[in-house]
């Protein structure tokens, strides 16, 4: 049986490939600022502020007006829909400000999770129906990549074959649509920290999820050189009594990736998944120092693990903005070093560095 197949236009291939490679240049990674209005509302409440459009704008302005040296370690920023249209106090669109700093704007395009029918408390991610139209608008506004998250939960009977296949199919359809509109898709199969499973179970589930994902991406003719993947690190569940060393986490993570992620993919940008700022940095450093072949760039796409100290320092007060921005710069610098395996644990400290960022059934 024959099937019709065609590669993307060569000019589109080149554009997508250049953007993907620019995001994962050595020493740089992604700042994820794509919390939903509900998600950032909880953070605003923690510093005594109402969840208003202006307060959300004020916080994101704090991040984006950080000194230009931020771009030494931050190559790209993932935005939420509202943020794409917001401006600084002086009227500069956030997207223009990021471009001026040589930081690539991107956009979260999934519309969060809903229950997966007839599954054991599993979920699917929605937002495909109008995705092409939304991507076209975001591209016109200046975004160059997109992100879509599909969480998978480890339990006695999960993730199910149904959930794994659904994740693979949804991510592949999303990636295909993004590329059709000129955006680099970041695919995010997120094996959650929730549970008491050990690192061996996490590794196996991650490998199975990756195998299904790349089979589906191939079936949908996705141009891999113009994609990135944002996976979990392979760690034990939050409730597992045995805690593994960074070196063990690094070996398990790279082994799983070698078994599932094609070498054609330019880079792997890890999510922090509820790890503390310090844990996320130390584990990323260990991953980059594993003595196994690593055909892709291995860097970060952190939200909570780049912002926890910023929130604690800012506290909703304008007089703390500069100090909060310094915390962001320090954390970005630590992760930039870790992304090339040159971070020395303890060399860079931040005020919330050892505080857990874990939340059960986490939603952005």
Automatic annotation (TrEMBL):
Keyword Lyase: yes
Broad EC category: lyase
InterPro entries: Aldolase_TIM, FBA_I
A GO term, aspect molecular function: fructose-bisphosphate aldolase activity
Domain of life according to the entry: Eukaryota
Pfam families per the UniProt record, alphabetical: Glycolytic
BP GO terms, sorted: glycolytic process
Keywords: Glycolysis, Lyase
Catalyzed reactions: beta-D-fructose 1,6-bisphosphate = D-glyceraldehyde 3-phosphate + dihydroxyacetone phosphate
Record EC number: 4.1.2.13
Annotated metabolic or biological route of this protein: Carbohydrate degradation; glycolysis; D-glyceraldehyde 3-phosphate and glycerone phosphate from D-glucose: step 4/4
Recorded family membership: Belongs to the class I fructose-bisphosphate aldolase family.
Name the UniProt record assigns to this protein: Fructose-bisphosphate aldolase
Organism: Papilio xuthus (Asian swallowtail butterfly)
Record gene name: LOC106117623
